[in-house]
Amino acid sequence: MKRPTQRETNPFPFSDTNKRYHTFDYYLRKKYGGKCAVIPLDAGFTCPNIDGTKGVGGCIYCSERGSGDFAPPPDLPILEQYLAQQAKISEKWTCVGYIPYLQAHTNTYAPPSVLSPLYDRLPDLPGAVAVHIATRADCLSPDALRLLRVLSEKTDLTVELGLQTASDKTAKIINRCHTFAEFKDGFGSLRSEVPRARICVHLIDGLPGEGRDEMLASALTVGRMGADEVKIHLLHVLSGTPLAELYRRGEYVPMTREDYVATVAEQLTFLPPSCVVGRLTGDGAPDRLLAPAWSRRKLAVIDAIDELLYRNGWTQGSRLP
């Protein structure tokens, strides 16, 4: 008798594969009827913890591209950035739609005269079915919220908020330059003022001084806040960053692969099943990645998380208090 596969015995309702969590791919296929690709863009913005408004130097792990290492250079017009990447993606995959993603730095941190024309053109990019905008919860001014509300009435909008950790102690170490209370205020304002927008919250595992308890607490906190999507990243040590100096001096030790896999699997059990999981790890620019070396094998890490969930009988949300 044939043994049932993991896919056939998967009890998780938001999945049609062996994945025991609500993948972004599943969400997109159900919403748009097929595969969609996210296209990262760099509009040339900065951040308040870079330009001196709140701090200087940025977060200790960020390169000068501000999480936009995989986007084209900002001196290229947005349309050129978008079309160049769309062409490359089309050589590999057949997509039913594309999602322009303002990824680098803080994409609400500019006056309305700059933001408005940029936001206006995003829904009209060829093949665009939605728009994602990355920002900070403390950079949601009334003007920015108004423009986001207008954009959300034109297209499916997701606003991505970098939290990284719910611990103010850790946020100070990484030079985040905002508190969790400020994050909650921004999250609440975004939810009330732009009700049609999805909210995605970013978390980083392996931040200096944090153990598994702190990382689990951050995931549980975000789940309770009602985030529509969560992205979980591994902290990478990139050359040229303050974190790289800590690493070289032996003052920062990256997570092991085993600890990361175990932590992420447990974090998933604390997220509501309806919450989309945008990613389970991240990419460090290959030419700048100092550590951890195991992160280069991203698919192997994800497979290990899948295996641990299956072995423990866990699914997303299965251990919610």
Task: Summarize the SSE layout with pairings.
Layout: H1 24-32, E1 36-41, H2 78-92, E2 97-102, H3 112-121, E3 130-135, H4 142-152, E4 156-164, H5 168-173, H6 180-193, E5 198-205, H7 212-225, E6 229-234, E7 237-238, H8 242-248, H9 257-269, E8 276-279, E9 289-291, H10 298-312
Parallel strand pairs: 1-2, 2-3, 3-4, 4-5, 5-6, 6-8
Antiparallel strand pairs: 7-9
Helix pairs in contact: 3-4, 7-9, 9-10
Q: What is shown here, in short?
A:
With 321 residues, this protein is of the alpha/beta class. It has helices at 24-32, 78-92, 112-121, 142-152, 168-173, 180-193, 212-225, 242-248, 257-269, 298-312; strands spanning 36-41, 97-102, 130-135, 156-164, 198-205, 229-234, 237-238, 276-279, 289-291.
Descriptive notes:
This protein is of the alpha/beta class and 321 residues long. The protein has a single domain (24-311), classed as TIM Barrel, CATH 3.20.20. The protein is 36% helix and 16% strand. The strands form two sheets. Strands 1-2-3-4-5-6-8 form a seven-stranded parallel sheet, sandwiched between helices. The protein has a two-stranded antiparallel ribbon with strand order 7-9. α4 (142-152) links the parallel β3 (130-135) and β4 (156-164). It is globular.
Counted up, domains total 1
How many strand units? 9
Kindly, what is the distance between the CA atoms of the first and last residues, rounded to a whole number of angstroms? 39 Å
The class by helix and strand makeup works out as alpha/beta
Mean pLDDT over the residues? 94
**CATH superfamily membership:** Aldolase class I
The CATH architecture assignment turns out to be Alpha-Beta Barrel
Residue fraction in strands: 15-25%
CATH class: Alpha Beta
Bin the helical content.
25-40%
Order of helices and strands: HEHEHEHEHHEHEEHHEEH
Low-confidence stretches: none
Tell me the overall shape: globular
